[in-house]
C-alpha cells in the first residue's frame, strides 16, 4: 500500500470515528480536500499523520484566508473541524457562512459576474445566430 493511499485511509477512518453518520460523498470530499490541503501547504511532502492538522491550525487558517474563496474555505474548514474538533476551525467556518449569507442577501454581482455578464440584447443576438440549430 502506498503512503498516499494509507494516509487517505487514515483520514477516512478518523473522520468516520468523529462523525459516524457522515455520508459517503461527504467522506470522499472531506478526505480529498484535507489531503490536498496538506499537499499544497507542504510543497507536496508525503503526509504522515493526522496531528499535522492539529499542530498547524493557525497556519492553516491563515493559508485558507489568503488563498481560498470563502465558499470553498467554509467546506474545507468543516472537514478540518470534523477531523480535529478544534474550535477555531468551526469559528472561522461560521464566520465565513455568515459573511456568505450577508453577501447573498445583498444580491449584488461579484466582480467575476460583472466581467462575464451579457445583456439581453447579446443573448437575443446569440439566439438569432443559432436558433436554426435548435429547430
Question: What's a concise summary of this model?
Answer:
By secondary structure, the protein is mostly helical. It has helices spanning 3-18, 24-41, 51-55, 57-67, 70-84, 87-106, 111-116, 120-134. The termini are far apart.
Q: Any overview of this molecule?
A:
It is a single chain. By secondary structure, the chain is an all-alpha fold. The protein has one domain (3-108). The protein is built from eight helices and no strands. Helix 1 packs across helix 2. It is elongated and about 60 Å long. 16% of the residues are buried.
Characteristic key phrases:
135 residues, 79% helix, mainly alpha
Q: State the helicity in percent bands.
A: over 70%
What is the number of domains? 1
Give the DSSP E fraction (strand runs of 2 or more residues).
Answer: under 5%
Query: What is the N-to-C succession of helices and strands?
Result: HHHHHHHH
Amino acid at each position: 500500500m502506498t503512503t498516499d493511499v494509507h494516509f487517505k485511509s487514515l483520514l477516512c477512518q478518523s473522520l468516520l470515528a468523529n462523525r459516524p453518520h457522515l455520508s459517503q460523498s461527504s467522506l470522499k470530499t472531506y478526505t480529498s480536500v484535507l489531503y490536498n490541503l496538506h499537499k499544497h501547504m507542504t510543497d507536496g511532502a508525503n503526509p504522515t499523520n493526522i496531528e499535522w492538522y492539529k499542530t498547524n491550525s493557525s497556519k492553516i487558517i491563515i493559508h485558507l484566508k489568503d488563498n481560498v474563496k470563502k465558499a470553498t474555505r467554509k467546506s474545507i474548514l468543516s472537514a478540518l473541524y470534523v477531523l480535529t474538533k478544534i474550535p477555531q476551525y468551526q469559528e472561522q467556518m461560521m464566520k465565513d457562512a455568515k459573511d456568505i449569507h450577508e453577501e447573498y442577501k445583498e444580491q449584488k454581482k461579484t466582480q467575476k459576474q460583472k466581467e462575464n455578464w451579457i445583456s439581453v440584447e447579446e443573448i437575443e443576438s446569440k439566439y438569432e445566430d443559432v436558433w436554426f440549430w435548435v429547430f
